[in-house]
Specification:
The complex is a heterodimer of chains A (about 55) and B (about 525). Chain A is mostly loops and about 55 residues long. Chain A has one helix and no strands. In chain B, helix 3 crosses helix 4, helix 3 runs antiparallel to helix 11 and helix 8 crosses helix 18. The chains are: A little secondary structure (about 55), B alpha+beta (about 525).
């Protein structure tokens, strides 16, 4: 780790971010349970061709 | 900086270095192999990140490729520190859970990557033609703006589905989903008084010196692109102060600009002790052939690629692997709107005339697209966007010649410093003029010096080849796409051939290069 520390840290000055780099952390290694909305289907037929009302019912 | 082809299901495999690439299953990430770069693979439980970045002079010079395994706290700490790396970088990170990835770019944009995200696969490359391996749709909105010669620095490119990873931007990838995010706009600058006791010339010199010495190098690795103008001359002064005599290269132009260019370059080279070498523009005229080329595709907009490539070959033959340029110098000293004199803003300038010629080619549909305000441009950047576009335009050809580009005048700290200068230092590029006077003497850049320019190259060349160009334009891809009027194109070509005037030539050349690009990918 010593070499890693040296190479990674030498020029970093107190976490200065002069140019506005997006500083969020790494990806979370956990995913929430996927949600499947009722009208989302594989063909993208939101209007439901063949139904009386595109909005449902 | 890298090339990658990653299938998301391969994220379940262990990422490891093999023969200069990071391999996971059948997927791989290949950093560009160059002494100016180093690549780190940092792994923790279930996730990893890779950073390919410019080596820093201030850091220990370790191996070109490193892998390490750390705990999650250390991973997060290193991740943040890599994001703040003070030179250019590209980062790729991956989380096994959900097969997710993120690609991020640094501030400098010196060698940007292009991305093509598909259902469960992402491909990245610094060479956009690597991603143009199948028929691609042309984006009519972007193409219309390009035809109208509007400046576009955007993730959206000529081809639908190929994105440029713009400076500080990130691209999130998950199975069936891709999400691009621009950064926050860079802070606005405004003229600010000099700090008490500080001298603008000294501060400029220090910042430029820091920019040319930020990367580890030695004089025998460096070629400097020396046009004979103020920008590359100032980089030459800073390099000579840092490394002593270095090699310089330049393209010698013909016509009335040649003698003053040769004389000025001679003065600069002799006073700084440069090892100067040149090629003649007339020996490497731009290729005007727009037929489907048998050779490798090239989508760059560099008009003088042939002559530039001849220079890069010389640098390569001399064993050099870094090319210092003056790109970014044009953008260092802007005028603020309230400083622009009435007479400056009153009449239409040459740019306006060029755009008028360019727009004459457009169909009503394309004109409508080009006139629409758009919201897809990248936000304000620390390095001015026109400099970033110039980097993107030239970087692939430089990398193919084994050269790493260094553009000290595009350094974001230098750019911000110059943009904040009081007016008297910016007006007429006064500060850089003083810097050059101090290093080269008063006689090299008098106020009315004849600037070297490529403006004389294309008019005569296009006029000479007008007939064969017209034959090739009987089939016009941009007309087939409904974006240009073929008769207007041929009319503009006739006008260029007859007048050899600068404005119509610029508009026609811009069209011609775009037509060639569209033919290559469509």
């Amino acid at each position: 780790m010593n070499q890693l520390d040296v190479v990674m840290h030498e020029e970093i000055q107190n976490d200065v971010n002069p140019f506005g780099v997006q500083l969020e952390g790494p990806l979370h290694n956990r995913v929430s349970v996927a949600k499947r909305a009722p009208k989302i289907d594989d063909v993208g037929d939101i209007g439901r061709i063949g139904t009386i009302h595109g909005g449902g019912g | 900086m890298l090339k990658a082809d990653i299938a998301l299901p391969d994220l379940l495999h262990h990422a490891q270095w093999r023969d200069g690439s990071i391999v996971l299953g059948d997927s791989r990430i290949t950093p560009h192999a160059h002494p100016s770069l180093e690549a780190w693979l940092v792994r923790t439980e279930g996730q990893w990140f890779v950073i390919v970045r410019e080596r820093a002079a201030s850091a220990s010079q370790g191996p070109a490729t490193v892998a390490c395994d750390v705990d999650i706290e250390e991973f997060q700490r290193l991740y943040r520190q890599c994001l703040l790396w003070h030179l250019d970088y590209i980062m790729i990170e991956a989380a096994q859970a959900g097969y997710r990835m993120k690609v991020r770019a640094g501030v400098f944009g010196s060698v940007p990557v292009y991305c093509r995200a598909m259902q469960d696969r992402i491909r990245l490359s610094w060479d956009v033609t690597d991603l143009a391996t199948e028929p691609l749709a042309i984006d009519p909105e972007i193409t219309s703006h390009r035809l109208a010669m509007n400046t576009i620095y955007s993730t959206r490119q000529l081809c639908v589905g190929i994105q440029l990873l713009t400076e500080r931007a990130s691209l999130d990838i998950a199975p069936g989903r891709a999400s691009y995010r621009y950064p926050a706009p860079a802070e606005d600058t405004s003229p600010t008084p000099m700090p008490a006791g500080r001298d603008a010339l000294t501060m400029f010199r220090e910042l430029l010196q820091r920019a040319v010495s930020a990367r580890p190098t030695m004089a025998d690795r460096i070629s400097l692109e020396l046009s004979g103008g103020m920008d590359s001359a100032s980089v030459a002064c800073a390099l000579a102060a840092c490394h002593g005599p270095v090699a310089s290269k330049g393209i010698l132009l013909d016509g009335h600009v040649r003698h003053p260019q040769v004389q000025r370059r001679g003065q600069i080279a002799s006073r700084l002790g440069l090892f100067d070498d040149t090629v003649d523009m007339s020996d490497f005229p731009p290729d005007l052939d727009i037929k489907q080329p048998a050779r490798t595709k090239n989508l760059a907009r560099e008009y003088y690629l042939e002559a530039c490539s001849a220079l890069w070959r010389k640098a390569c033959a001399q064993g050099h692997d870094m090319l210092f340029t003056g790109i970014g110098g044009d953008e260092l000293f802007p005028s603020y709107l309230d400083e622009v004199q009435e007479q400056d803003s009153g009449g239409p300038g040459k740019g306006h005339e060029v755009k008028r010629y360019a727009e004459q080619l457009l169909t009503s549909h394309a004109r409508s697209a080009a006139h629409g305000l758009h919201s897809f441009n990248a936000p304000a950047s620390p390095v001015p966007s026109t400099a970033l576009l110039a980097h993107a335009c030239r970087a692939p050809d430089l990398l193919r010649h084994g050269l790493w580009p260094v553009n000290p005048l595009s350094d974001p700290s230098l750019a911000i410093f110059c943009h904040r200068l009081p007016r008297e230092y910016r007006q007429g590029r006064e500060l850089i003029r003083h810097y050059l006077q101090k290093h080269l003497g008063d006689d090299v850049f008098p106020r009315d010096y004849t600037k070297e320019t490529f403006a004389g190259v294309l008019p005569e060349l296009i006029a000479r080849h007008a007939e064969s160009i017209a034959v090739q334009l009987r089939d016009c891809a941009l007309a087939d796409l409904g974006l240009v009027d073929q008769r207007a194109v041929l009319g503009l070509l006739e006008s260029v051939a007859a007048t050899q005037a600068s404005a119509p030539t610029t508009a026609f050349a811009s069209f011609l290069w775009l037509e060639r690009s569209v033919r290559q990918v469509h």
